[in-house]
C-alpha cells in the first residue's frame, strides 16, 4: 500500500510542471490525489472557476500566489486544494504537527472554510482545527498541537502564540491569508505582522482578497518570493 502511495505521489509531481490552465476544463484534468479527486466529485465540484484554474497550478508547484477575485468566485478551493495536496505529497501524518495555517478575518468565514475543508478533505487522514475563540481556550490549546491544518482568526491565533508555550509553528509549510483586504480594513495589520514574525521564513504563502490590494506593502513581513499574480490584470 505504501508503494502504491509512493507511485501516485511521483506521478503527480511529474505532472505539476506541465499543467496548462488554458487547457483545463475539469478538476479531473488537474494532477490531484485520488483522495481529493474523489471528494471533489462527491461534492459535485466538476469545473474549476477561473481563480481556481489560475491559482492551483502555481500553488502545486510551491509558488507564492497573490489572488484577487470577487466574493463568490471560489477562492476557498483555490487554496484548500493546494493545501491538501501539499500535505499529501509530503506524506504528512497526524504526528507531524501543524503543516498549514489558514487565517480568516471573521469566525463565520473561518467556519465556512472549515466546512469546505471537511468536505474535500474527507478521504485524507489529516486533522484540522478551528481556532476562532468563543470556545474554551484550554480546549483549543490541547487540540491545536495535534492539528495538521489550523483555520484561525488573527486575534485568537496571536493569543495562542503569546500565551501557549506548547504551540509550535516550526513545522508550518503553508500560510494562507484569506480576505487579506478585509483583514486590513478590520485593523488587523499589526496583529498579522506579529503573527507572521512567528512563522518560519521558509514557507509558501497563498494570499487571497476580493479586491486588488497593496497588502504586500502593508504586511511588511510576508516576504513573498516572486509571487504569481492571479486576477491582477496587467501585473500577471
Ligand atoms: P469566495 O471565497 O471567492 O467568496 P467561495 O469559495 O466561498 O467563494 O465559493 C462560493 C460558492 O461557490 C460556494 O458555495 C462554493 O461551494 C461554490 N463553488 C466554488 N467552487 C466551485 C466550483 N468549481 N464549482 C461549483 N461551485 C463552486
Ligand atoms: Mg472566501
Automatic annotation (TrEMBL):
Per its database record, what is this protein's job? RNA helicase.
The Swiss-Prot or TrEMBL record describes its family as follows: Belongs to the DEAD box helicase family. DDX10/DBP4 subfamily.
Tell me which species this is from.
Drosophila madeirensis
Protein name listed in UniProt: ATP-dependent RNA helicase
Where does the record place the DEAD-box RNA helicase Q domain? 25-53
Q: Where is this motif: Q motif?
A: 25-53
Q: Where is the Helicase ATP-binding domain?
A: 56-230
Instruction: Please give the start and end residues of each transmembrane region.
Output: none
UniProt comment concerning the protein's domains: The Q motif is unique to and characteristic of the DEAD box family of RNA helicases and controls ATP binding and hydrolysis.
